[in-house]
Amino acid sequence: MNSIKRILPWKRTVFFSIVILILLDILNFYGLYTSKFYFLKIDNYIFPLLSIIHIVYLYKMWNKIKEDELSDPPMRTLEYILYLISLVYVFKLVETISILLSYNDFDHHLIPSTFIPIGCIIFTLYVLLLLVTYLAISYRREIVGPYLFDDMNQHVDHWK
Length: 160
Hints:
The chain is mainly α. The protein has 5 helices and 2 strands; from the N terminus they run ααββααα. It is about 65% helix and about 0% strand.
């Protein structure tokens, strides 16, 4: 993990997270079997909505690190929601794998030539997204600090 942290410090992690989220938001509308974009399917808008929450978490983390602030309850809530959203990322990863493995189930003349390359790109982006998500959470733990709200009021001098 330390070698990954040397390659991706926290600023690069935030940057790559946002770039990966934007790419996956665009590719979420792409149909691998048909090689077309589908903007009228409601299901395709779930991932972009969830990625907004992820970007808000990254913004809060960036702000906490830059301002040298302690963690707070809204950030904790965002992080817990991000844990649930990462389950959606895992689901989308497994879904992409199952689509890629279905390549031999159909005639090869029915499947577009972009099926394997774009599918591999989407798969790689989901793996990288999971990596940078948990890397960002570990940076939050190291730099911002743990969530110790019971201990927070003990460091305040009430007589000043």
